[in-house]
Amino acid sequence: MDRKAELERKKAKLQALRDEKEKRRREKEEKDLQEAKAGAPSEKDTRKDLDEMLSSLGVAPVSEVLSSLSSVTSVTSDQSGQTPDASLQPTLNGQNTKAKKQQTLSVVQVQVTNIQPKENVTYTKQTQTTSSGTHELRDAHATDYYVLTFGDAQGDDEDHSLSHLDHGGFHSKLPPGILPHGLPTVKEVAPAITPQEQKKDDIKQVKELSEEQKQMIILSEDFQRFVLRSGRVMERALSETVDIYTDYIGGSESDEGLDEKSHARLSLNRIFYDDRWSKNRCVTSFDWSTHFPELMVASYHNNEELPNEPDGVVVVWNTKFKKQTPEDVFHCQSAVMSTCFAKFHPNLILGGTYSGQIVLWDNRVQKRTPIQRTPLSSTAHTHPVYCLSMVGTQNAHNVISISSDGRLCSWSLDMLSAPQDTLELQQKQPKPIAVTCMSFLHDEVNNFVLGSEDGYVHSASRHGNRSGIIETYEKHLGPVTGISTHQSHTTAEFSHLFLTSSIDWTIKLWSLKDTKPLYSFEDNSDYVMDVAWSPIHPSLFAAVDGSGRLDLWNLNQDTEVPTCSVVVEGAPALNRVSWTPSGLHVTIGDESGKIYVYDVADNVAQPRMDEWQRFGTTLHELKMNTNEDFEDLDKSMSIPQQPLSLTGSSVA
Amino acid sequence: MAQEIDSIMSRISRHQGVEGILLFNLDGICIKSYNIFDEQKVKLCSTLCSDLCFRGKSIIKDFSNGKLEMIRIVTDLHEYMIVFERDYIMFTIYKQNDILSQK
């Protein structure tokens, strides 16, 4: 109650002060006006105008002054009333520039008001809130004792988004006994009375966060980041529906279902599909992260049904968790034809687009659009970039991109404004090659193989004596859709092998050394859209075709027919196939935006100890079978004499 | 961006078994609540939860050098999942269905 009375008194004082100020201001104005009138020009016309103006000016303030002045004596009002009269009769004063006015002087009562300086009730956050990094210095008293209290950690202070709301007087004090977080600082124990008082304040003020403030918090960047990150964690936690409290005593084991699965050699594990971002968009490429082997990036073509949505979409999926929603979504204005993770930068994702630009996304920034783009100029690409890959080592790496006009550009991630190096891939006649797919040989930075639209397969190298196309192999009968080099990590024996798939319904196995294919797989009855070697098994590869079929071929078992084959539900046209780095799952992308992850049974996916040897013999046999030339047969017979005798019986 | 947050949160709240989600700040004031309409319950949740969070954080700080990231409280009726970010807390009430009823 005292406070209210005090406040009232203060308000009255303030009002009085304001009135005084106004009065003084008006008086000043009058004086100025008087001086202005005094210095008025001698011409009559202008003077009259002036007079009118001044009078109109003079009258108004005077009346205001009269009304506001309650305590001023009438003498002063007379005086102020006389001044306009004086102004209306400037001619009386003669032609002196300075007209002397006959003013009647009178004694004015000066009103003196004594207002004490306004007491600013300030408080430092340090004493009354928990979030403080520093402690105020107080005189050390002998009887005080010190207690370890925890101030806030340094970083939090700057970013505390509620700090601007603290002006309202909101402070939080923890009930005694609970220690706030932060670094320990030595602080004096506050006297006993205050915590209780503040606790009361605290309880009152908890409810004071208004709607506006809440809205402000919601719109703040900090809050958005919080929701994105914790939302992700929460979704993952909710999706892992393992009930750890199940009681097995009552019922039978729930593992029976798993045994059934293991019998099927290829079984659907899950489908990655996002209604908003991947619907109706053809999957154009896959890549796996080297830093986090469970992360996969998939790029999508444009959605023809929704032309207003961005044309190019790249989605990062997480295969570890059962959460159905993407890890990250990025988009750009042009359809993304190829994508890859930046091998040595875990946060960057590259995409090659239909327009020829190479775009770079960063998942640290909260933007979904690219943070960097290559220029759209003749120095870079002007045709769709179908092939994109990163080669090199941690310290010396490059991004290699090939567009469908045969131009190869190598870029450095630091400078995407101009390619480090360009190379025109041309055949012997200066005719550019329309490259559709490319693959670097295993562990190679220089040599790669590529397939083109006209069906030719080439091997090329970036640098060296013969940069450009080294060798051209025999034609496929249609454009080459996919190319895959052998991925064996253990031996380099088979690194000269690669597979190509084509629209002519075949898959061909080649060796770098021969211009003719080693073998042609003719089991498909539709366009074969992609082929991929298994990363762990030397003789296993997967192929997808346009009729929805996924085939797994094991060359050691059978070269005529795939080892296992499955038709995807709904038989969509499958566009891309890729193995997980573990080699136990196959992912395929179809034309409507769905990504299927298939489990491959262990007995199929895992190579046995002798697989490499068997593959060697298989290759040899393939060579033998295709070679009709007697001389060649002799030659090939003589070389691998020893290993044949070691392995003994021929393996079909 | 507010719409995006809304869509993320509503998607989580529509997840099978989720009964409600609350978002607080460190001082225990509820910023947004999904599916929980009882004012009293919200306030109770927020005050209790913020106490628990402070306690939990200080325990972890004392016990090890790590930072508290998540608390999951499982009772016979519900599961409460509390996720911590720097300045805010997300509190979810979840009821896991029986395996038998799922099949």
UniProtKB/TrEMBL annotation, chain A:
One of the protein's GO biological processes: transport along microtubule
Positions with biased composition (Polar residues): 78-97
Subcellular location: Cytoplasm, Cytoskeleton
Compositionally biased tracts (Basic and acidic residues): 16-35, 42-51
First and last residue of the signal peptide: none
Coiled coil region boundaries: none
Key words of the record: Cytoplasm, Cytoskeleton, Repeat, WD repeat
SUPFAM superfamilies for this protein: WD40 repeat-like (SSF50978)
Region (Disordered): 1-52, 66-101
Family: Belongs to the dynein intermediate chain family.
Full protein name: Cytoplasmic dynein intermediate chain
Source organism (scientific name): Polypedilum vanderplanki
UniProtKB/TrEMBL annotation, chain B:
Top-level taxon: Eukaryota
Domain called Roadblock/LAMTOR2: residue spans: 7-94
Pfam families from the UniProt entry: Robl_LC7 (PF03259)
PANTHER family per the UniProt record, alphabetical: DYNEIN LIGHT CHAIN ROADBLOCK
Stated family: Belongs to the GAMAD family.
Name of this protein: Roadblock/LAMTOR2 domain-containing protein
Originating species: Polypedilum vanderplanki
